[in-house]
Amino acid sequence: DYFKLWYTVQxxxxxxxxxxxxxxxxxxxxxxxxxxxxxxxxxxxxGNSCYLNAVLQCLCSTVxxxxxLLNQDxxxxxxxxxxxxxxxxxxxxxxxxSSCAPVEARSVLCSILPQFNxxxxxxxxxxxxxxLNALHDNLKKMRSSIRQPRQDQNRNCAxxxxxxxxxxxxxxxxxxxxxxxxxxxHQAHSTQTxxxxxxxxxxxxxxxxxxxxxxxxxxxxxxTGTEQMLCSVCGLRRETAVLTCLEKPPEILMLHLKRFGCxxxxxxxxxxxxxxxxxxxxxxxxxxxxxxxxxxxxxLYAVVNHAGHLNMGHYTAMCHNTLxxxxxxxxxxxxxxxxxxxxxxxxxxxLLYSRKPFQKPKIYGL
Length: 366
Ligand SMILES: [Zn+2]
Description:
It catalyses: Thiol-dependent hydrolysis of ester, thioester, amide, peptide and isopeptide bonds formed by the C-terminal Gly of ubiquitin (a 76-residue protein attached to proteins as an intracellular targeting signal). By secondary structure, the protein is an alpha+beta fold.
């Protein structure tokens, strides 16, 4: 019980410290107000919604996505849910205030996803994936309804291109798996698309690099016991070696650090300081077939940080703005410009990289 009490005291102190820290940075936000920088807009916290705000900041700084969504032709196709988010992005890029309240976006989100309809902490990675999937489905549906007459004539002609949207074009990559039956040496190859790579963190160090996490993800593994795979030659489940590689690197690479895990029966947060730089080269993980043809050097443009405990923490975002060419720290409604060297943080949870540098966004009215 003493332990429990101590834990509670710790959480209260953590909350106080976090709120004091965000108070402190509010003065910087006031200074930014006069400058009114497009794409640099704080988001008010509507009761533990920092995870939503941090995710929205990442989407707001994804220039090709914003350009596409704010295009008038795209907006004609959007459903109400997507349009609410697009209006918010528009306000963040073209609005005149230093922060706005994502009230409508939050209520739309709650109406379709009941688990977000409370004031408890939610996972930023799950939300980001949910938003991107919803947007992808919406854009796909709208396009297929426009193309309906033609598709009826040739129903089998649902090409891969017809399934693609700005979301899949930007965020989707392909992983290749080479499996080897340890009994008969039969090899098989399969692929899978992904939008985020969830990277394990080496647990035996207090500090490691993002390359260490990637190496661990792409490391050869042996599936044993209940994980054994069915070998088509043996006709039985066998021990299988699996080699994972990157078959198609995405335009925008999202890396998720698996900080929340289990240690025995207890849920824990891994606090390993994962060191990353502004550049990331994925060449060592490319499949041999694309090794020389694919450009796989990435630059960092957004980071979601998680400070504090498992269920009692605070999300903030660091995003690079293409107009000012500087980084900003977004702590709900408080925004401050930060130096490149301060982007690295032991609290990093999600990292967003782009293959091509973003250009000045082509947004009508900017
Ligand atoms: Zn076999």
